[in-house]
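Chapter summary example: a protein plus NAP.
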Amino acid sequence: MGLGVVGGGVAKVLREKKEAIAEQAGCPLILRKALVRDLSKPRSTQIAADILVTDAYEILTEPEVDIVVEVIGGENPAYEYIKQAVKNRKFVITANKEVMAKHGTELLALAEEHGVDIFYEASVGGGIPLISPLNHDLVASSVSTIYAIINGTTNYILSRMSAEGITFSLALQRAQELGYAEPDPAKDIEGVDAAYKLAILATIAFHSTVRPEDVYHEGITRLTERDFRYAKELGYAIKLLAIAKDIDNSLEVRVHPVFIPEDILLAKIEGVYNAVQLEGDLVGKVLFYGEGAGASPTSSAIVADIINAAHKINSGVEARHKARIFQTKKIKPMAEIETRYYFRMSIVDSPGVLAQIAKILGDNSISIASVIQKGTDDNTQTAEIVIMTHPAQEKAIQRALVEMEGQPVIRQISNFVRVEE
Ligand SMILES: NC(=O)c1ccc[n+]([C@@H]2O[C@H](COP(=O)([O-])OP(=O)(O)OC[C@H]3O[C@@H](n4cnc5c(N)ncnc54)[C@H](OP(=O)(O)O)[C@@H]3O)[C@@H](O)[C@H]2O)c1
């Protein structure tokens, strides 16, 4: 279902690697039908015109079809089609992060009820194996943290802003020219796409359902060249990180820009590449890195899932391992997270102003780690200062921000960014 970037790639691989795939699956795989919206649209992949259909039910009710690959995208009708396929006892392979993040737990339970399975490796990190390692190779470890760069568009934009000192809008424009960003980039730049992916990963890693609305998300649009300049001066890189932590059975799940030390591996992930770092009690730190999107890497994950499904069907293996989700962990409210913070603000350049700021922070139990003050602007009598704090609670920071905004000596709080060490 779907013959666009990914569906076209999958069809091409199924044709070009037909023999090898048949060997691995234990039976030949035949592409019976392909769902599209527009039959007359030129296709990048050679495909027999007679297999194209525009009615999904020609696939969903076809007894010859054992495996349905959903690569339409979006919540509906994809969600309905997946549900129907499962009810008709078809294995489903999907690359759909939105559907799996919002309805994954329900769909997997439905699949179990009907003796089939849903594979969704391509929904997070394109060709990078993440879901299968979490479901299989890492199950003996209890995962405590996930730090992930799982949106190539934003990582590309941030990499350009950092390397070239350009503005967010110019970096976004470059990303769009190169096809790395959609004409409507909102879901990427606002962190929504990464939040879907984090909900999927956290659900599997912590064996507890994490819904997209549980994930706090903030995008990258407030970052400026000045933030990158200060970050470098302080020894940090700025990344949009998807962070999940299990602290005493309470889950932190959040996506937002962060300062991370420039010498750690995640700080060195450039351009459209993705990387996911997990930490487990037995395994320690593990890093997955690779191409997080594109027809070829995504097809790699999908075709592998197809081969797995075919192998299961062919060998009559009982559909799936049970109890992927066997507990309910509390989601920690964002107000309760504790981290370090970077503030950049424009203040009136006169004696005593820093003391006023320090008092507001101190009254909110926020302790200052360092302050940088750059040249003053004689015309406006203002100076820009950057403050790095020691670990503090988010709610204290939000309170202090409101108090600082009410001070006449603080002209503007230009930005604040969380810091992960
Ligand atoms: N692109 C990537 O690199 C990438 C990476 C990982 C995951 N994914 C996921 O893979 C999925 C597909 O992405 P894509 O980039 O391949 O999208 P795409 O290029 O826009 O292709 C979508 C395909 O689905 C068909 N389609 C859409 N709505 C339909 C409907 N209501 N009924 C029937 N057919 C419909 C379209 O038909 P027409 O061709 O006739 O318009 C098109 O063939 C999404 O869930 C996406 O998040 C994509």
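Key point: The chain has a mean pLDDT of 95.
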